[in-house]
Write a structure and sequence with these properties.
This protein is α/β, with parallel strands linked by helices and about 400 residues long. The chain is built from 18 helices and 13 strands.
Amino acid sequence: MRIGIDATCWANPRGYGRFTRELVPAMASLAPDDTFICFVDERAAAAFDLKRSNVEMRVVQLAQSPTIAAAANGNRSVTDMLRLTRAVGRERLDVFFSPSVYTYFPLPLGLRTVVTVHDAIADRFPELTLPSWRARAFWRVKVLLALSQAHLVLTVSDFAARDIARVLRVSPGRIRVALEAPAVTYTQPAANGDAARLAAQLGLPADGRCFVYVGGLNPHKNVDLLVGAHATLAREMGGNAPHLAFVGPTETDVFHADHAQLRDIIEAEGTGSLVHWLGFLPDEQLRLVHANSLGLVLPSTCEGFGLPAVEAAACGRPVIATTESPLPELLAGGGIFIEPRNLDALTDALRRLTNDHDARDAMGRRAREQAMALTWERGARAALDALAEVA
């Protein structure tokens, strides 16, 4: 097959960028007789590092990169989208794959298409994910157009598939699932002393008494709740309280977030000396941060997959995560799973992982076993099967 791919999100540091960068190389490796034509803008082209004989890159000149324009309150140029449409139309393709509905653009009529919808969070909770009525309207139009052109819809978990069927009214027979997995970096053990040295550089406690949060600061992530639960524990434990590290973009995040409000809450709680803003970290460093931690916390209102939790689990760390996700099943026995916005449950979970060393280690071992059972090759095979079915 000749498979066209929207790779304009290749440079995006968040989940759907990771999905594209991990899944597409695995697909190309599994299908050496297929040709993958990847359409990118200049920003994505600069980060595009997939060099295989069956992969070709097409650079489309755009006024603004979709990585920036396809944001919570962004405004993608119609001219830019039509440039992508025309570029695709010039190629002889059997099928087209959109790894993310975020960067979706209209495709030539008649082209067989598979579109990935990672979750239905923006449609279930628009006020928590899209800051204005205008952004919500544009999002709705884009999703409806993508679904109307898609012959099959790909998603990342059975949990997300059920949400998409119920909320977006997509027939379950049109949905296929390609599970995500930890990147290889997270499956490698940390060398002696590396984690402690990085902790010292970042100002984190050398003894690993630190919880980690990875991701954006969108309202649906319930980071304010995490800050409050951590503050309660800090008051209880005084000088022996665990620290809290945030990993991910802050002021530079192009999605709906309120970093300043979180800082105000931390100041009011008086826990500033225990909270660390680490910004974006490359995988090799984040692996070491996980390895020298009490565990990862992901208390979201909803997660289509929850890749940061799976990555931390691959490092042998337990997780505290939302029940509104596939994580209770994917990481069964590897953490504590709580209902969204349940402050008491979140505080109790933080308290238990801080104080119960044996339970924490047992959960960490189980979490790693569960995470290691997931592979990008498995997800790539599911995506290729969907593309072959559509073509």
